[in-house]
Amino acid sequence: MSDFPFQRVVVTGGAGFLGSHVVEKLKARGVVPYVPRSAYTDLRKPDDVADMFHTHDPQLVIHCAAICGGIGLNQAQPATLFHDNLRMGSQILHLAHLWATKKMVNIGTICSYPENTPVPFREEDLWNGYPEPTNAAYGMAKKMLIVQSQAYRQQYGFNSINLLLANLYGPGDNFDPETSHVIPAIIRKCVEAVETGAQSITLWGTGQPTREFLHVEDAADAILLAAEHYDSSDPVNVGTGVEISIEELACLIASQCGYRGVIQWDHSKPDGQMRRCLNVSKASTRFSFYATRWLGAGLRETIEWYKSTRPQAILA
To answer: How many CB atoms are closer than 10 A to CB 197?
Structure first.
């Protein structure tokens, strides 16, 4: 018997990195959510979204689906990241309102914060400037969904909430060299360097920017807590409140991978925003979320998962 307050749940992106962890936690609570698959449901198409609501009549929609990646992808495809993310989120929220869905959880990003936000980032600073240019298109698309959420609550009384997640990592992450974020990108380079005996690896930027990293299991816990206990369209930061420089992160990953070579920094590549760290007090007071999985142990777990699941390299 489930103790979760919603029995009919749709998790968009439920086959992806974050969404799959949300799905497993829902199943552990006795709820088997519906996960739309891109082969049958294109969330960018209104008719497909309408069919999903008609067929599954969700009480709760958790919108994890997103097209996202590291700085390289953001620079190469800003129009795609803006258009597809805004279109998916906007249509789902609109149909959820029309279908009288009880609640929607929208997963946002700290990329929406202004470039020069004081650290730690407070939710009240979200509108005090334009996002850092290397990820502005993606950040603004997600930011517009907060506007829509607040507007639909004001005009229609529709209950949707917005969570601003720190950079995620953990088992199941995307290790594709063209689209991955920083942690899987560094892990892959270090593991491959150990396998091939390479004496150096090259990483983007200067290594000086800082980032905050949230284990995907903590993120999934926060989403379910907010779905149960938070009912405001005002955005909430979800993270650890702890930052680390990319250089320190790279050294930590290299050590855990057993890589002893040189780490070179390509200064011709962008650093992105220089500091990112969240004030996470609102999440603790509004829905009692506290991160419990810390970076060192989480990286070891992620590295071991990657080593155990990747195809074995064919060494010359």
So the answer is: 8
Mapping DSSP to helix (H, G, I), strand (E, B) and coil, where does residue 285 land?
Answer: helix
The amino acid at 256: Q
Calpha distance 186→183 (Å, rounded): 5
Q: Could you tell me the pTM of the whole model?
A: 0.95
For 232, counting Cβ atoms within 10 Å of its Cβ (0-12 exposed, 13-18 middle, 19+ buried), the class is middle
Is residue 80 within a helix (H) or strand (E), and if so which, with residue range? helix 78-98
Helices (H), 9-63: 17-28, 46-56
> Per-residue pLDDT tens for 185-219?
999 999 999 999 999 999 999 999 999 999 999 99
CATH of the domain at 36: 3.40.50.720
Active-site residue, 156 included: no
Q: Counting beta carbons within 10 angstroms of the beta carbon of residue 102, is it exposed (0 to 12), middle (13 to 18) or buried (19 or more)?
A: middle
Range of the domain at 281: 9-172+213-242+276-293
pLDDT in tens, 47-78: 999 999 999 999 999 999 998 878 888 889 99
**Catalytic residue (one of 34, 40, 130, 138):** 138
Residue 252 lies in a domain: no
